[in-house]
Amino acid sequence: MIRAGIIGSTGYAGQELVRILLGHKDVEIKWYGSRSYIDQAYASVFQNMFQLVPDICKGEDLEQLCEEVDVVFTATPQGLCSSLVSENVLSKVKVIDLSADFRIKDVDTYEKWYGIKHQSPQFIKEAVYGLCEVNREKIKKARLIANPGCYPTCSFLSIYPLAKAGLIDMKSVIVDAKSGTSGAGRGAKVANLYCEVNESIKAYGVATHRHTPEIEEQLSYASGQEAVINFTPHLVPMNRGILVTAYANLVKDVTEEEIRKIYEDAYKEEQFVRFLNAGVCPETRWVEGSNYVDVNVKVDERTHRVIMMGAMDNLVKGAAGQAVQNMNLLFGLPETEGLLMPPVFP
Ligand SMILES: NC(=O)C1=CN([C@@H]2O[C@H](COP(=O)(O)OP(=O)(O)OC[C@H]3O[C@@H](n4cnc5c(N)ncnc54)[C@H](OP(=O)(O)O)[C@@H]3O)[C@@H](O)[C@H]2O)C=CC1
Ligand SMILES: CC(=O)N[C@@H](CCC(=O)OP(=O)(O)O)C(=O)O
């Protein structure tokens, strides 16, 4: 059995990790980490875990934790993982960080967009960006995984086949994205109260959202060119889900059929990326609770642009599910272990 510890198990992403790992036949959760609920029963924080989790919450002592487990998930705010990780820790356990601390390779870019000083830049280079569809082989050998952001996962997987094929102008990409409120975490914030979110939809972080450099960096690697995007996230009144609609100028004359073939080839071996039939638009309701990303593409011949669409569950493929997918690769397990639950509907 793989022994797992979760720092931040009392947040939304952490709770989703608990839910998924409880159904994973090769994993035993040994450490339910928290900051505010130390010594309290985990099931008193999340009643859905009543009679399923008898454990008591513990703190975030990573040095102690790494004596007791094989893998540590950090589902904590930006800056925490980088302040805890050390050579000693990495020599003993695998670390999968759900925050952004190790996603961006250039430390100045991280510090500029996140507004905080990086606490352990010496580990940025070795950290592997945990997008399994692209970095599978590197992930298998890693000690430290930077689990991708929710918007970046959905945006990147929607655009990736055309970026890689060199068919779109990488400075013309516009990503319009929408997220349910669980994306903002469980912490109390006025902006996330029911009356503030319900019956309304708004853009936020316009031209300043911290996921912009992450998406640009990954698209640059995929295309071999510098990607510069406009990224606009929106908050929508639903619990879970991310929807991406991305636009780009085509740089060659290609037919819809040719483009569909590129997507089919890119994703035919991918268990968790579902390339939909022509004309079917991805919807968050068809992926909720699952590790699937649904994508589709449409050429607008009139404007010579292409529209790339994606939908996924921000807490599963956008966070905990992707983290478990990474863990499976790190421990030589089938990548899909514990992750084949079908989407929930209605
Ligand atoms: N929500 C989402 O859709 C996604 C989230 N992520 C990332 O996952 C991480 C967690 O996000 P999310 O679950 O939404 O956030 P939440 O606010 O819901 O949860 C944060 C968790 O971190 C714990 N925590 C906060 N500060 C500390 C600290 N100083 N020491 C130890 N533990 C601490 C909290 O403990 P306590 O409850 O005891 O206060 C809680 O368990 C973030 O980095 C986020 O960017 C990534 C992709 C998607
Ligand atoms: C709706 C909402 O507020 N979403 C969050 C992003 C989700 C998240 O937690 O960020 P990471 O994926 O980088 O970890 C935000 O915009 O800041």
TrEMBL record:
State where the protein is found.
Answer: Cytoplasm
Q: Which reaction is recorded as catalysed by this protein? A: N-acetyl-L-glutamate 5-semialdehyde + phosphate + NADP(+) = N-acetyl-L-glutamyl 5-phosphate + NADPH + H(+)
The answer to whether UniProt assigns keyword Cytoplasm to this entry is yes
Under InterPro entries, the record lists: AGPR, AGPR_AS, AGPR_dimerisation_dom, AGPR_type-1, NAD(P)-bd_dom_sf, Semialdehyde_DH_NAD-bd
**Which keywords accompany this UniProt record?**
Amino-acid biosynthesis, Arginine biosynthesis, Cytoplasm, NADP, Oxidoreductase
Main location per UniProt? cytoplasm
GO MF terms here are:
N-acetyl-gamma-glutamyl-phosphate reductase activity; NAD binding; NADP+ binding
Name the protein family.
Belongs to the NAGSA dehydrogenase family. Type 1 subfamily.
UniProt keyword DNA-binding, yes or no = no
Its annotated pathway?
Amino-acid biosynthesis; L-arginine biosynthesis; N(2)-acetyl-L-ornithine from L-glutamate: step 3/4
| Annotated EC | 1.2.1.38
- Name of the protein: N-acetyl-gamma-glutamyl-phosphate reductase
Q: PROSITE patterns annotated for this entry?
A: ARGC
Lineage of origin: Bacteria, Bacillati, Bacillota, Clostridia, Lachnospirales
One cellular component term (GO) for this entry is: cytoplasm
The processes (GO biological process) annotated in the record are: L-arginine biosynthetic process
- Name the Pfam families for this protein: Semialdhyde_dh (PF01118), Semialdhyde_dhC_1 (PF22698)
What does the function comment of this entry state? Answer: Catalyzes the NADPH-dependent reduction of N-acetyl-5-glutamyl phosphate to yield N-acetyl-L-glutamate 5-semialdehyde.
Outline the extent of the Semialdehyde dehydrogenase NAD-binding domain. 3-142
Root EC class: oxidoreductase
